[in-house]
Amino acid sequence: MMRDRKSVKFNLEPQQHQNGHLSPYEVAKLFDPDVSWDKDQLGDILHWIRQALALVCGLLWGTIPLVGGIWFLLFLLFSSGIIYAYYALVLKIEEEDFGGHGALLQEGLFASTSLFLLAWILAYSLGHF
Predict the structure, then answer these.
(1) Residue 81: which pLDDT band, with cuts at 50, 70 and 90?
(2) pLDDT tens-digit map of 100-121
(3) Which of 1, 86, 102, 113 has the smallest CB count inside 10 Å?
(4) d(CA 129, CA 122)
(5) Which residue ranges run through the membrane (predicted)?
(6) Helices marked H in the chain — which ranges?
(7) Contact present, 61 and 112 (Cβ < 8 Å)
């Protein structure tokens, strides 16, 4: 079930070219502080940023191999720091318009935690066969 998403300045739906890739202009919109965001659009972007970080960190942690709860906490702090930096410093949005820091920092947190742990465990296990 897809919802129509509207933006005041432009449509953020990905516009694919013949080769199936996004244009550099479309990617540049993700870093433009003048873009108007609605709650669903921003939530989706924060969710997918966190998922990408979870996959990369999980594979990296497992490949190195790092073990222990401190590394899990470090991932949570790292991913939350990246999310905060993205919406507060890059996009410069008013967090109160989107439910405050708690709502924005929670976006995608539980799914990314699961993905991080899965990637970490699989990478660690495959490295020790």
Answers:
(1) very high
(2) 999 999 999 999 999 999 999 9
(3) 1
(4) 11
(5) 70-91, 103-126
(6) 24-28, 39-63, 69-84, 100-106, 109-127
(7) no
Q: If we measure between CA atoms, which residue out of 63, 56, 102 comes closest to residue 79? A: 56
Domain boundaries in the chain? 47-127
**Cα 24-25-26 angle, rounded to 5 deg:** 90
The full length of the chain comes to: 129
pTM of the model: 0.80
Determine the Cα–Cα distance for residues 15 and 13; give it in Å rounded to an integer. Answer: 6
Calpha distance 45→57 (Å, rounded): 18
The token pair at 78 is 């790292």
